[in-house]
Amino acid sequence: KDYSNQTTPTWCPGCGDFSVLRSLQAAAAHLDIEPHNLAVVSGIGCSGRISGYMNAYGFHSIHGRSLPVAQSIKLVNPKLTVVASGGDGDGFAIGTAHTIHAFRRNIDMTYIVMNNQIYGLTKGHTSPLSQTGFVTKSTPYGSIETPIKPGILALAAGATFVAQGFSAYQDQLVDIIIKAIQHKGFSFINVFSPCVTFNKTNTYQWFRDHLVNLDDEPNHAIGDFQKAMNKYIETDGLFTGILYQNTNPDYYSKLPGERGTSVVEQDLDIRHKFDELMEDFM
Ligand code: SF4
User: Fold this and answer.
1) Is 236 left (phi over 0), alpha (psi -120 to 50) or beta?
2) What distances in angstroms separate CA 58 from CA 70, 238, 261, one per listed residue?
3) What is the mean pLDDT of each run of 10 residues along the chain (282 residues)?
4) Is the dihedral of CA 22, 159, 124, 205 positive or negative?
5) Does the beta carbon of 120 lie inside 6 Å of ligand 1?
6) Helix, strand, or coil here: 193?
7) Taking the domain 17-251, which CATH number applies?
8) Does 11 sit in the ligand 1 pocket, CB within 6 Å?
9) Which of 40, 73, 144, 223 is the most buried (most CB within 10 A)?
10) What region holds the Thiamine pyrophosphate enzyme TPP-binding domain (predicted)?
């Protein structure tokens, strides 16, 4: 199956988002997901273009709102494999509230954040994930703010699958996306996806020099919440691999009674019910 729709991406040469796109396509191929059973929803930003490059259902939503759209799609038709994606500004500035509630709600879908620690599409200003001291046109004296730690936020909010990838470590990223899609619940992947045009600090080489690979740590226990927290703090969030996963039941499996039947499988011809209702008032 071909998961590319043959549209040529307009990302800058070298942008980390190319690797995320290829990794998602490779993961879909590995899992043999029929394109008509895959929905990719994106937000706004350079990363938001990804939904337009997949041979799948695509929904390029509005800024910070990919998660509400994606969760709705999954709830209406749980047989679909649903992947939401967006940038760090999309998910952790305007969309922060949706992100936190998605973590705790645990709907069975995957959220990939293409994190370049900057706003690329709007020409390079600081994002909530930019490092303290980061100099851009919007922070000419360096950012004085403390960046959000996405993995800590995810763990604290009750996420059941938390992982990080790096665009240059594509084999690992494909493996993480496969496991994230297989996870029965909400899976969150924070991908370090360098912006080669505007972020001259957090470059490919910078990440190679700083990232710890959890796959090289045989004693890393992904089901241990406290150890996951400790590992995040110990590495200052600079790692790749699956940090944490548990088997808490997903949202849909907890729905009671008839609501456990998906909307697309329900009899939506409610006219007879309406007639019955009206008869009660006659
Ligand atoms: Fe990628 Fe940055 Fe170019 Fe946007 S501006 S396409 S994030 S390299």
Assistant:
1) left
2) 10, 31, 24
3) 94 98 98 97 96 97 97 95 97 97 98 96 94 95 97 98 98 98 98 97 98 93 95 97 97 77 74 75 77
4) negative
5) yes
6) coil
7) 3.40.50.970
8) yes
9) 40
10) 44-191
